[in-house]
Specification:
Blueprint: H1 2-26, H2 36-52, H3 71-82, H4 87-127, H5 130-138, H6 142-157, H7 168-182, H8 189-206, H9 211-231, H10 237-240, H11 246-255, E1 262-265, E2 268-271, H12 279-287, H13 290-305, H14 309-328, H15 343-360, H16 363-387, H17 401-405, H18 418-432, E3 436-441, H19 443-450, E4 456-458, E5 467-471, H20 476-483, E6 490-493, E7 499-505
Parallel strand pairs: 3-4, 3-5
Antiparallel strand pairs: 1-2, 5-7, 6-7
Helix pairs in contact: 1-4, 2-3, 3-4, 4-5, 4-6, 4-15, 6-7, 6-8, 7-9, 8-9, 13-15, 14-15, 15-16, 18-19
Length: 514
Amino acid sequence: MVKTERVTLWAYRLLPAVLLPVMLVLSRDFGITWDEKTQQMYGRAVWYYVTQGADSHWFHPGWYMYLYGGLFDMLCVAAQRLLPGDTWTTRHYVNALFGWVGVVYVGRLGRLAGGPGAGLLAMAMLVLSPRYFADSMNNPKDAPFAALFAVALYYTARLHPRFPFLDLRLFVPLAASIALALNVRAGALLLLGYVALALASRTVASRACSPARLLSTAARWAALALVVLVAGTAFWPWAQKRPLHRPVQALFKLSDYDWDRTVLFDGRDVRTKALPVDYVPRWAAVTVPPVVLVGATLSLVFLARRRRGLVAGMWFAALFPAAYVILSRAVLYDGIRHLLFAYPPLVVASAWGWRGLLEALAGRPRAVAALALAIGLVEPAWFMWRNHPNQCVYFNALVGGPRGALGRYELDYWGNSAHQAIDWVDARAREKGTRLLVSGYPPHVVRDEARRRASLEFAREGQRPDFEVLVLRGTRQAVLELASRTDVRHRVTTADGATLAIVVPGGARGDVAP
């Protein structure tokens, strides 16, 4: 048993070291996503603000980006100045690095909850969650925030059980992690609430309720909040003008984001401002790997038998944001990517649940449970292998995989598959030794992908392209019509046959089509 524990500990330590270069290399295979152009321009503006004090229209009301911190995008611009090569590839390196940080800190949370074994399993579950992995490659909004949120949750969980709960040694990393998260998204303010709840629970549990101790605890939290609000706007020009007020203002503005369009949900076109009450739980049920869902259920069973404050806290961190958006009727679109930050704590609870089951069993039942866990991990891993680099369209067996979800749920809402479609057009151009004009949808993604290839040019207004690249996104009717077109020259599909993007003739020439 001691030898097994030693092997587990070494595996827990080595997995992050192996994982980092793998994630960095694989990030090169992913395409430009819907928001990356905007994020890149915002990052440049923040870079010039930080380095030269230059103002920009990006920092003022009118375009919604002023409501977001610019830390991640500014770091991408900084990396582009240091590293030679393609702009978007460098952005994806930085994205993958943040995703890796999230995996590491989920492992640390898992270890706090149930030892190195739970930490190792939590890391494995998170990196083998296809949607988290894909978001780690090229999602410039949700993935960096989710990673930093996990870091802050870890330091929140490290609050001491006895007074003083928050000493200077812990204050620094906790304040830094929350401030960094706030420099990405205003939702980091939730963490101050989580810290307050954690301090209150520790105060009650340790009976540190004397007036002096209550005042000291409140003062420490107030100091934390003040430092977070000031440091949390260091890379957020708009909020920096009024750091004690504007982050809160941004949080409420983003919760009531004025984006009233249709999204595809359960085979229906529904308005974003009138989402069904089951929108979030239904999306979670069909896009979370079954092994995570089973482990999460197990954790609830074990929580009912024995109290475990950290795991209960992980459940709160996973459920509260979802409950808030449901009850407040907040606008959501692109599935539930805006709630990605609530997924890592769910993974921690799930890992603890599986660990608890294995520890509660012995002999053949334990072997059967271990086999079930291994099979559960293989399922999303096999999907990721077969569908790389389109892990973002993972759907589990409850909906029949991506093929069952086609026409029922949004698949490639980021436009990642345009990268592969453009690769096909590029190959045709190089085969013929000619330069081709392309256009398509989403136009800005197709344009920027075309500019990465010397043999392609994006068709300007009035020009007839040789090929059109079309990502299947839109209403149910539009998606099904695109999927059934008969003039398709190339399809980007999932392993089970769901069409993600198509290439069709543009009408300019016919001698380049096979």
